[in-house]
Please model this.
Amino acid sequence: MANKKDLKSSMAHGMSSGLDSLIQPTTKIQEPEQPQKEKAVHCNFVINQSIHARLKTLAIRKGVTLKDVIQEAALEYLDRNE
Model:
C-alpha cells in the first residue's frame, strides 16, 4: 500500500495546471469569420416526369440530394448563358 506522502505527491502531480485550467481568459478570443451562408428560397415549379426521374436517378447515383443536382445544373446553365 502506498504511503501518504507518495499519494499526495501523485495527486499534486495530476493537478499541475490547478486553477489556471479552470479560469477563462478575460480578453475576447477572435474567431475567424465564417462566410455567410446565402439565404435559401423555396420555389415550386412543374417539370416533365421523365426529367424528374432522370434527375432523381442522377442524384441517387452521385449520393446527393435532388436539390443539389438541380442547383448544380442551374449554376452551369447560368454560367453558360450570362
